[in-house]
Amino acid sequence: MTLGKGLNFIPTDKISRTNIMKDFKKFERKLRLKHFFHEYKTIPKTNHPFKEKSKFSVPIIGDNPIEQYIFHTKMELSNYKPNKTKNMTKEETQCLRTLRHIETITIHKADKNNITVVQNKKDYANEGERQLNDGIHYIEIPEINIKNTMNKINEIVYNMNKDNYLDEITFKYIKYENQYITTPFAYFLPKIHKLDNEILKDIYKQQTEIKIQVPARPIISQCNGPLERIGRYLDFFLLPIVKTQTTYISDTGSFIRLLEKSKIETDTLLVTYDITSLYTNLRFSEIIDALKQCYGDI
């Protein structure tokens, strides 16, 4: 029941006055910015897609209703004593503490349906090693040099800016100078929806221990990596193009609506493929050849 709350559930048993004041500090800045730009500046209707977030702080300008509100609210919050209300029972809290100290398991979400999975850490690592060492999709790099990668990206970006392929705002967004750079990492989401129905029935019964190799979907996280902003830049231009393709499907709902709109006949053969690369297109001749291998002449 505890894990059933989901991985986005946040236990709240302590309310810190310090955190409340931090949140109000952000709200205070937004109020001043609204007032300042409404009175003294003209706000552009559309912002540049790669404009960095401003750290501009509005100075206190005289005595006005905004400043009075901020002052009196701060006084009220400084005397506020929050009620300590818990959203978990003692048993659930103890369960979380116990799970936190079990070093042989890993807890993460499944690939589908937002299900929480408790998996043996050794099995999780074995699946990751199996995928990374398949010799097809990944190549082992003897030595990782993030700084060297960053310098190569900066060299390309500087040349693009010099040749007027990048405007000044985009150039400042993509180039790496003072940003915190980390090594990208891989993690894996178990595909429990791929398991055989008979195996799932045995798991639900919980009568016997079942040892199986659960396939997983690999995710390569580029957050704070050297290619993150390049990826955002390319995605901004590629995604609208992808959406114009006749083969584009955004989600399951759009696929069902497409089938209803197309009025597909009952004897139509529907085929699915596992795509291993982003923005991949299949030629019609490739689909026909694949179908012939499976079903013969069609």
UniProtKB/TrEMBL annotation:
**Source superkingdom:** Eukaryota
Q: Mind telling me what this protein is named?
A: Reverse transcriptase domain-containing protein
What is the originating organism of this protein? Mytilus galloprovincialis (Mediterranean mussel)
User: What taxonomic ancestry is recorded?
Assistant: Eukaryota, Metazoa, Spiralia, Lophotrochozoa, Mollusca
